[in-house]
Design brief:
single chain; about 350 residues; 13-stranded mixed sheet; 13 strands; about 15% strand; globular; binds S-adenosylmethionine
């Protein structure tokens, strides 16, 4: 059959821990970057089949998702999060798959919210948000990012490929704002010829709402989404298109290493962001580590292999040993995939976004 049928498990290879002897002391990686953010995937399952992320021909009814005992437990996640906090992380983002599908997620949120000095956020497709926003806030979640690719119900249903209605996601965004999970960020992945007509309606609708729309370049994550450079709408074009109707001015980043480039409406009615992973790589300031659903640590979204922290936990390793492993892994890190991307690298068997966490 075609190249597209790839057993994802083939790509979930683990790497041996780096040797500590050859590494310089200190907390920075080989390119001088600190560890600041931890993304945790709490499930590899999703109720959407977004065509660019979990295409149905790969993630069909027979697809083998991880069995329950392979997932990190809430206690294991909390333990790792605390160890990571000791390495300076300031922000945790829960993701997936669809994180709100993980049963009793509020319990995990309450456990993570008890860690001092960490901002706790979550990325969701919004499908269950109207029901869950209040409980998430009450558990201690600070903010949410909602993925929404179009304000045209027909285009939206086609892109999520689960026939999920737009109105329910919009209700989820309202519920999140009402619950105080604000400012709500709204992520739109732009794919040439698929939803580029939704760029302006999206900007118009959320201008003045207090929500921040972020336009994301379609990326070659994973190996199943059939990525081609021609499908990417460069951020510069998006800014030009919006700015022609609603004048924009550049804004400084909120903090060093912020992924989105910020623009404000010249009339003061809010801001947008663009995330240009393809056309303007931001590897140089990347401070993110990613913990997969089954406890593999990845130091890049475009990784082909990770480090198996779950085995360490389940074989009885003390916190000090886990901490030392994280330190070695981070200090050996030299990833800068987006800076060296070519048509050939785009075809390599990278980890799927739904597994590693977006
Ligand atoms: N299910 C949640 C959601 O929909 O937000 C969290 C996981 S999802 C993988 C996280 C984000 O990754 C979403 O905003 C999604 O649109 C984005 N994403 C997935 N595949 C992508 C790709 N190939 N390029 C750019 N963004 C992508």
């Amino acid at each position: 059959m075609t190249e597209r049928i790839i057993r994802i498990s083939d790509a979930r290879r683990s790497k041996p821990l780096p040797d500590s002897g050859s590494l310089d002391a200190g907390r920075l990686d080989t390119l001088g970057r600190a560890l600041r953010d931890l993304r945790i995937s709490v499930t590899d399952r999703c109720n959407f089949r977004c065509v660019y992320c979990m295409p149905k021909d790969v993630f069909g009814p027979d697809y083998a998702f991880l069995p329950r005992n392979e997932l990190l437990s809430f206690e294991e996640i909390e333990r790792l999060a605390r160890v990571f906090r000791g390495h300076g992380i300031e922000k945790i983002r829960l993701t997936g798959g669809e994180p709100l599908l993980r049963r009793n997620l509020e319990r995990l949120i309450a456990m993570l919210a008890a860690i001092d000095g960490v901002e706790l956020t979550l990325t969701t497709n919004g499908s269950l948000l109207a029901r869950k926003a209040r409980a998430l806030k009450a558990a201690g979640l600070h903010r949410v990012t909602v993925s929404l690719d179009s304000l045209d119900d027909r285009v939206f249903r086609a892109m999520n490929d689960a026939d999920f209605p737009l109105a329910d996601v919009l209700a989820g965004i309202d519920a999140a704002a009402d619950a105080g999970l604000a400012p709500v960020k709204i992520n739109m992945v732009v794919k040439r010829g698929v939803n580029e007509d939704s760029i302006l309606p999206m900007a118009r609708r959320f201008r003045g709402s207090g929500h921040v729309v972020r336009f994301i370049e379609f990326m070659d994550v994973g190996a199943t989404n059939g990525w081609r450079m021609d499908d990417v709408v460069p951020s510069a074009e998006i800014v030009r298109r919006i700015g022609a109707e609603m004048p924009l001015e550049p804004l400084d980043p909120n903090y060093a290493g912020e992924v989105a480039e910020r623009w404000r409406y010249a009339d003061g009615s809010g801001e947008i962001g663009v995330i240009s992973s393809v056309t303007q790589a931001f590897c140089r300031t990347c401070t993110r580590a990613r913990l997969s659903t089954e406890g593999m640590l990845y130091t890049c979204l475009f990784a082909t292999a990770g480090y198996d922290l779950r085995s360490m936990l389940r074989s009885g390793a003390p916190d000090e040993a886990v901490s030392s492993a994280i330190s070695r892994i981070w200090r050996a890190r030299g990833d800068r995939y987006s800076e060296i991307r070519t048509a050939d690298t785009a075809k390599s068997r990278k980890i799927e976004m739904s597994y590693i966490g977006g």
